[in-house]
Write a structure and sequence with these properties.
Blueprint lengths: L1 H11 L6 H11 L7 E5 L3 E7 L8 E5 L4 E9 L4 E9 L10 E5 L2 E7 L13
Antiparallel strand pairs: 1-2, 2-7, 3-4, 4-5, 6-7
Amino acid sequence: MTDLITINNRLMNPLFNTINDFVSFADEVEGKRSLRTAFKDEGDHYSLILEVAGFSKSDLNLSITPEKEVKLKGNVETKHYKNSIDKTLSTPVDANTSKTQAKLEHGVLLISIPKVEKAKNSKVKIT
């Protein structure tokens, strides 16, 4: 019911607030849902936040490719609802993807990717 109210409100307002509103609306009409993401540099690690409402841990498959790409796939289907995700995101070259951690909380997938430790100068004794 909430989705119908949202669509009705958008139809009644022919001028959308932003182009994102229009794209989001078009996705809803086509039966697709945009996957909202945020990527942040947190200093010692990167945070990747993905909105995955309606998915449980068992519905999602998160993997890292040898090219340091984060791949998220998922599928959920109930009697009244069907949704799927197939998203690939590249990470920066200094991302240590082998130590990636992920947590699902309240429809939001939180992914933490540490950065590679930078090499430090060291003294070499000449003999």
